[in-house]
Amino acid sequence: MIERRPVLDFFSHLVLILGVLVVMFPVLVALIGSTQTADQIASSHPLSLVPGHNFLHTYQLALFGGKTASGSTIAAALPMLWVSLVSALVIAIGKIAISLLSAFAIVYFRFPLRNLVFWMIFVTLMLPVEVRIGPTYQVVSDLGMLNTYAGLTVPLIASATATFLFRQFFLTVPDELAEAARMDGAGPMRFFVDVLLPLSRTTIAALFVIQFIYGWNQYLWPLLVTTSESMYPIVLGIKRAIFGEVYVEWNVVMATSILAMLPPALVVVLMQKWFVKGLVDVEK
Length: 284
Description:
Layout: H1 6-33, H2 38-43, H3 55-64, E1 66-67, E2 73-74, H4 77-108, H5 114-123, H6 133-142, H7 149-153, H8 160-172, H9 175-183, H10 188-199, H11 201-216, H12 220-225, H13 234-243, H14 250-270, H15 272-283
Antiparallel strand pairs: 1-2
């Protein structure tokens, strides 16, 4: 029996509340700043925490672009949000699909040097894109994949971490299930689709959330492989809005930052239950 101590509960909740406030304060500042004009932000030191009346105009300018009163040109965030969304979905779904199949092959198929193949995949954890970025860029350039969705996503799809997690999960699946499927005449892919995939739902959901955010937040790789503004993801759009003009429209930058946070936040909120359950199941 666990004894409840009101004093410890109070301090635990106090620490959690303080942590939430620390994390949320920059987001709150950005949200309030996006409702003000650029002149209000520039003339306020420190930034006023009173919401302004420029909310609709600022977000319309951030989403669809246009000219500001100071003469600055704002690039539309809507196409960049679309590029980020497509890239994040392709990276997340691609990583999960390839990792599922590779883990399935390693666990359920007997072939020479099977363990060596797994460790060769696992060792790639020490070679992230940042380490091999020069050769990877050269290959992408030679294949004519610059300024394309394939160039943004294909080099980031393979995942040793996801392969390892699915392998560990498949090892916990009783062998009797595979034997029963074999006796019923089910082939390997039928067993994979009808048995393993339903059992892996929570793990897939947890990995989807992680990999979607990973793909959405990519900065260095898109910076190298995109030279056309039509293929800029939203992270590059925020950087361009800050460093691309002499006069920075901070209200638009903050509005774009808020818009950039919405899709991954929505994914986390909608899949929170599956995400937590998947992490717990993986730990088991």
